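In response to the reviewer comment on reproducibility (Comment 2.3), we provide here a single inverse folding case reported in full, input and output, so that an independent group could reproduce the run without further information from us. The structure tokens appear first.
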């Protein structure tokens, strides 16, 4: 589906050609460039775009199929970039979409898959800065990449906030340890999804500043360096959060072991108390004829008192030891 198509010249919109009029619009404006945005395009739309802009067949095939790892490929003067779009799903886990960007000397094409987050805000911001739009398709490519990376920050912030809350309640009594482990594992999966989007994109942005830079990005290397710095910050946060999750999981397993040890101590203490009572009852329960205690007038109260005294002494001792 075509979202937007605009022709820019000297930083301002001068036309809005359809997919079948892009080549003609470029011929009419030798100094302008076209910015086209598509969402879940049909095969017919991509074929038309390929014909109008002479796009590489292999790159078009990647954009058609989707499910690409973040990457940057060069086809002569044309760049093809794939980036992951992450957004929170209904169950709190990140939903992974994609945006593929074709960058030529006189055009930019963004193809969005499986994501409802559009880039109209990016287009509006770029159009409010015509002096930057004059830098050409390279600046639009930067603006799209910067918008994608900026959407990663709320995701890592949400993970860190949830992790802090978990750490704060981890030592509370009555905590469901299995639920905590499940929550920690869920956070680890969310971080893995974010890391799969960020780490390859670091390699992509490293090719866009310093050293040999594609022609379309030469004039705005500093902007891509800024995106690279943002990605480094996100990756550092991901690594720190992963280490915290590993430590929290180990602490939680230790707490489980401690809880089991306390239960074992309580059971052992009560078993010792009942064992002493059972031993005394067993002694006086033997049916021998010559047992002087059987004929004592106070034999029964004395036996009960001995059992209560031994049991009470054991209970007091275990209570002092913290076993009960």
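Designed residues, in position order:
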């Amino acid at each position: 589906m075509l979202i937007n198509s605009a022709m820019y010249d000297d930083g301002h919109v001068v036309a809005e050609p359809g997919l079948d009029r892009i080549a003609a619009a470029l011929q009419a404006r030798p100094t302008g460039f076209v910015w086209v945005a598509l969402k879940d395009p049909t095969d017919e739309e991509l074929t038309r775009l390929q014909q109008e802009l002479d796009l590489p067949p292999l790159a078009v095939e990647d954009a058609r199929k989707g499910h690409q790892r973040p990457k940057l490929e060069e086809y002569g003067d044309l760049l093809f970039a794939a980036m992951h779009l992450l957004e929170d799903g209904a169950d709190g886990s990140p939903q992974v979409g994609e945006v593929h960007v074709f960058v030529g000397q006189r055009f930019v094409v963004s193809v969005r898959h499986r994501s409802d987050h559009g880039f109209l805000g990016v287009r509006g911001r770029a159009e409010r800065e015509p002096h930057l739009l004059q830098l050409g398709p390279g600046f639009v490519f930067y603006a799209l990449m910067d918008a994608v990376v900026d959407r990663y920050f709320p995701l890592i912030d949400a993970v860190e906030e949830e992790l802090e809350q978990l750490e704060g309640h981890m030592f509370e009594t009555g905590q469901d340890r299995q639920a905590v482990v499940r929550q920690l594992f869920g956070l680890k999966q969310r971080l893995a999804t974010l890391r799969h989007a960020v780490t390859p994109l670091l390699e992509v942005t490293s090719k866009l500043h310093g050293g040999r830079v594609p022609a379309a990005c030469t004039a705005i290397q500093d902007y891509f360096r800024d995106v690279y710095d943002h990605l480094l910050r996100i990756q550092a946060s991901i690594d720190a959060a992963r280490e915290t999750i590993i430590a929290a999981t180990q602490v939680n397993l230790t707490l489980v072991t401690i809880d089991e040890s306390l239960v074992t101590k309580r059971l052992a203490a009560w078993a010792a108390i009942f064992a002493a009572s059972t031993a005394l009852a067993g002694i006086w329960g033997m049916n021998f004829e010559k047992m002087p205690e059987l004929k004592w007038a106070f034999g029964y109260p004395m036996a009960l008192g001995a059992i209560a005294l031994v049991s009470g002494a054991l209970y007091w001792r275990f209570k002092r030891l913290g076993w009960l």
